[in-house]
UniProtKB/TrEMBL annotation:
Protein name: MarR family transcriptional regulator
Keyword terms of this UniProt record: DNA-binding, Transcription, Transcription regulation
Gene Ontology terms: biological process: response to stress
Entries under InterPro entries matching the protein: HTH_MarR-typ, MarR/SlyA-like, Tscrpt_reg_MarR-type_CS, WH-like_DNA-bd_sf, WH_DNA-bd_sf
One of the record's GO molecular function terms: DNA binding
Domain of life assignment: Bacteria
Species of the source: Streptomyces tirandamycinicus
Residues in HTH marR-type domain copies: 1-145
Length: 165
């Protein structure tokens, strides 16, 4: 006998829809100001963020973090390496493995992207009234805590708890 999932509250559904709308607006705003010559894909950006958190990992570990096959991750890293954002070096632990690291250019790219995105957000947030800003901050803290708690409950590909990338 299977049980159906618990019904979702109307307010939670409305909040999820509103969050999706905001995310779509942010994607459009962020893409507008992006330099298309040096833009990386969303998948490549996940690689950069993952390496920022765990620089110097091997391809298999990066694949586990991303939930992707090593061959797919290798192709992503090929393109990022061609752009000068990551580098692969021999592993100090095993001659059969390569270590993947962000380059200085990769770190600068992430920093510039974050600054640009923050400026877009700041312009919108400064236009809000103080009460709405305070409510947004409180809501975002609660949202982040829920996401982190949910990720900690779900096992990752290697059996460990997953982390949001």
């Amino acid at each position: 006998m299977s049980t159906s999932p618990a019904p979702r509250s109307r307010r939670a559904t409305d909040a999820a829809r509103a969050a999706c709308d905001v995310i779509e607006m942010l994607e459009i705003l962020w893409e507008r100001g992006r330099d298309t010559a040096s833009a990386v894909s969303a998948s490549q950006l996940r690689v950069l963020y993952s390496l920022e958190r765990a620089d110097g990992i091997n391809l298999r570990t990066l694949g586990d973090v991303l939930g992707s096959a090593p061959s797919s991750v290798s192709r992503l890293c090929d393109r990022l390496e061609a752009m000068g954002l990551v580098e692969r070096t021999p592993s100090p632990v095993s001659r059969r493995e390569l270590t993947i690291r962000l380059t200085g250019h990769g770190r600068a790219y992430i920093s510039a992207l974050r600054s640009q995105r923050e400026e877009v957000l700041l312009a919108a947030i400064e236009a809000m009234d103080p009460t709405s800003r305070a409510a947004l901050l409180e809501g975002l803290h609660g949202f982040r805590q829920a996401v982190v708690a949910d990720a900690a409950r779900e096992p990752g590909p290697d059996g460990d708890s997953a982390r949001p990338a």
